[in-house]
Write a structure and sequence with these properties.
By secondary structure, this protein is of the alpha/beta class. The protein has one domain: Rossmann fold. It has eight helices and ten strands. It has a five-stranded mixed β-barrel. The mean pLDDT is about 95.
Amino acid sequence: MTPHLEASPGDYAPTVLLPGDPLRAEWIAKNFLTAVRCVNRVRGCYGYTGTFRGLPVSLQATGMGRPSFTIYVHELAAFYGVRTFIRIGSCGGLTAAMPLRRVFVCDRAVMDTDLEASADFAHGDHGLYERALQCARKIDLPILTGPMVSSDVFYHPTPETRFNLPISKGITAVDMETANLYTLAGRLGFRAVSICTLVDNLETGEETALSERHELFRDMARLALELGYDDERATQS
C-alpha cells in the first residue's frame, strides 16, 4: 500500500493504462476486460485489474494535471513494479488539421514552459510507439501522430495567443500530462507511450459533447488494449 493506492503487491499488472477520469477507467474495465476486480478506491481514483484476450492488464485513474498524475505514476512504478504505462487521455487540437474524435499517438512532448526556454523534448518509448502504429493498422484505425505540448494551465488569460510558439514549431496537439509521463519514464526507467483522443480544437472552437465522452474514447481504449496485449505477448515469448 501507498498513501494513494490501497492495492496489495501483485494487484497491478505489469502494463497499466492511465485514464484521467475514474469513470472512464470504470467504463473501460466493464466494457473491455474480463475477470475484473477493483484494486483501488482511494480518493475515488479507481484502479482495476482484469484480462484482455487472456492476458492481464490494469487501469488506474490519475485525475487531472501534472501533480496528481505524477503521484500515481511514481507510486505504480516505484512500489508496484509496473514497467509499461499507456496514457489514454483527451487532448486538444491546435490547428484546423486536427479533427475532433480522432486518435492521436504522441512520439515526443514538451512542457510549454520548457519550450520557451530550450525546446527540450521528452520522448516516449520508441518500441511502444512503433507497435502502437502497427496495432492501429491491424485494427484498421486511422490515427494522427506527432509531437505534443503539455501545460499546467487550463484556463489561460490570453488563450488566443498562448500556443503561437508551439504551433510555429510544428506542434499540433496539447494536453496536461504527456510531457511529464515521458520525463518520468526517463527518470524512473519504465516504458511509456501516450495515446489521446481529440476532444476540442482551439483554432476552430469546436468541442465534443460531455454526453459522448465515454463512447468517444472507444477507439482509443481498443488501440491501447491491443497495444498492451501485443507488447505483453512479445515480452513473454
